[in-house]
Amino acid sequence: MRSRVWLTILLSVVSLLAIGPFALMVVIALTPRYSPVLPHAWPASLTLDNIVGVLSTESFLRWTGNTVIYSAVSVVAVLLSASMAAYVFARKRFPGRDVLLWSLLSTLMVPFHAVLMPSIVIIQLLGWADTYWGLIIPTLANAQAVLLLRQFIRALPDEVFDAARIDGAGDWRVYWNVVLPLCRPVLATLAVFVFLWHWNDFLWPLVVSGTGDTGTLTVGLSTLDAGHLTIPELMSAATVTGLPCLLVFLLLQRRLVSTVGFTGPGR
Amino acid sequence: MSRLREPLTVLVFLLPVLVLFGAFRFLPMLGAAGLSVTDYQPGGDVEFAGAENYASLVGDDHFLASLRTTLTYAAIYVPLILVVALGTALLLHSVPWGRGFFRAALLAPYVTSLVLSGVIWKWLFEPAGLLRDPSTVLPALAVVGVWKGFGYAMLVLLAGIRNVPADCLEAAKVDGASVWQRFRHMILPSLRPAIFFVVVVETIGAFQVFDLIYVMTGGGPVRASYTLAYAVYQYGFTYVEIGKAAAAGLVLWAIVLLVSLTQRRAFERNP
Predict the structure, then answer these.
(1) Model pTM?
(2) Domain count across chain A
(3) Which domain does A222 fall in, by range?
(4) Which of B90, B120, B193, B245 is 20 to 30 A away from residue A18, measured at CA?
């Protein structure tokens, strides 16, 4: 019994270390202007003024909008393109299938910095620098998504596909009316991961958009510093950047935890 | 369905993925090799430069120092994240109540961005000046990296611990095996594959550390945190030496490959 209590206390301490910095961030973001901030003093009152102030600057609004577009469009496009490919990888025979699948997977072994320069040269040659095309399209090549969906579709019972065939359904009907509905749970999990990857992505938005018209929140946040902003303003910007991820995670954590082995530590 | 239409359908279903991977994964792999032997300039002027970029890297003290800095960072980060992840996974596995709550708390840093972690921790480290001292900057960065990343490793190890049969552990306990003996002789052996996976994945991650450096130190102080991945970015985007940046990127790739192969060998040799 005593060891259980100690175990709980130890785990509570570690958990506090994990979420403590977020708690500090939020408290400081809510500290009124011109009053001392932590660790010097606990705020006498809390205010949303800093967060409202940050959210009403033109640049921060633009970064937020761009991040929403970057994440939302990528989620839809990755799920569609990856599930289409996964369907034929899982259910069709064609020459070169396994070689092709393995070469897609082999791209996971390539550090992004190794292909950074050629990727940006391609973007410049296409005239896509600081455009949504340049920001979004290259990040849609997602091998983890293809692999995860292929495993899932392969494990579906053959009878489902036979029944659809007997009913005279063509490949598009099978894909749209059978595969996608059956894949709903794994698609939901994948959507969460793709959302988090893009919302948190940094290097690619940095080199394609910088702080230009299509700049995102992470890049914007990285340009803010304590020299130009007050600490509460800086932490408000950080809160706005991080809160959507924490909320999505809290709502959907069961999905994330069950598939984590498949997806790698993120980008 | 006619047999003739089948290959066409397959092609159409594959087309988006083929185009995406072709243009933005495979073409850049070839392009990296190509760029690294040219003196490409953003205007479009290209001239063959042979091994010039590689020679320039070998002659560049900052580049050689960045290799050592990257290795040092990895040597601090990988053991630290393994210990933290293993410790939290064991605690989480054994805690009798509130497991879901604790798991959510421990995973919170993992779902947020490195940029956000960097901004918060830069402020937290400010009073102690850890980022301004060349001897503490790498450990400080590694602590933030571990804080941000251990949740993933913890989940992988937790899944491994679950594979140890609970009744065997119970039987060992009845037979008087201590906590340490149960860990050393029952849990640890069955965790080997999970530990191997975590070490490889986290080593590869450590060699690519970039976001934290960019946000927290900019490679300083006096280049004490100037890592390989940061050097690639600097060559390419600060000095606009694109061929040299591509060559440095390929060196990073080679090192990552070499390290993962070596680790695989090491794990296979010591069963």
Answers:
(1) 0.90
(2) 2
(3) 58-263
(4) B193
Flag the least confident range among A113-122, A133-142, A217-226: A217-226
Phi, psi of B38, deg, nearest 5? -130, 170
Q: Examine residue A248 and state whether it is found in any structural domain, yes or no.
A: yes
Closest chain B residue by Cα to residue A165: B1
- Partner-chain contact A18 B229, CB within 8 Å: no
* Interface with B, mutate which of A116, A144, A153 (most B CBs under 10 A): A116
Same domain assignment for residues A216 and A85: yes
CB A92 within 8 A of CB A171: no
Interface test with A, best of B8, B53, B82, B111 (most A CBs within 10 A): B111
Task: At A30, list the tokens.
Answer: 């809510």
CA distance B208 to chain A (A): 7
Q: What CATH code would you report for B53-269?
A: 1.10.3720.10
User: Would an 8 Å CB–CB cutoff place A82 in contact with chain B?
Assistant: yes
pLDDT in tens, A206-249: 999 998 899 999 999 998 876 678 888 899 999 999 999 999 88
> Is A42 within a domain?
yes
Rg (CA), chain A: 23
Q: Kindly report, residue by residue over B128-163, the tens digit of the pLDDT.
A: 889 999 999 999 999 999 999 999 999 999 988 888
Is A80 an interface residue toward B (CB < 8 Å)?
yes
Q: Kindly state whether residues A137 and A63 are assigned to the same domain.
A: yes
